[in-house]
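Quick start: what a row looks like.
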Amino acid sequence: MQKLYRININHFEDPLKNERLLDLVGIRRREKVIRYRMPDDRKRSLGAGIIIRKILDENGLTESCLRYSDNEKPVVVRREQDAQLAQQARHHGHAGDYVVGVLSDCEVGCDIEKNANAPLEVAEHYFYHSELAYIKAAKNKDKAFFTLWTLKESYMKMTGRGMSLPLDSFEIIRKDQGFVLGKSPKRPGFFRTMEFENYIFSVCMESDFSLPPKGFTELL
């Protein structure tokens, strides 16, 4: 099961100027929101909290069911009557005007970036040679860079390692059927990527999957 969520942060005010917005999220998220110095960062953190609350509400769960990994990856854990643990992993990303989230019944990671001036020197230093060759051969090098970047970030988040997993420790290859994981000492990964409003959004899971045909559930 996968479900995509999206919030445009321009739809609400700075939560420090309208504190009623903080009632939309849990206590832990409220504390995190107000620690940010910049208004847009507070809005993004609030948006992530709203997505978390929406997922909990839709599944009849409470904040007590929420657990976080060492890298702040949220996982919902529900104990069934037969004592089996049913896990629903959720991950979110943010860039520019949007916060996005993915709900899945297995490990998942996602990332979003605005397709604008790409730091191509990052690819020169930290990407696989095959990935760098893909960017150099592309007509739109910014798009090629951010496609690979979001794919790599989604994999890093799916593993739970985040940025502690070096960018050059695994390879993503473009094939006819899409992007696939190449050389990697870590876990398997399957990818989907999409574009909207000049943003690039990618998702990674451990097993093959399809994105929901209806796309994002819009919040707010």
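That is the whole record. The first strand starts at residue 2 and ends at 8. The mean pLDDT is 88.
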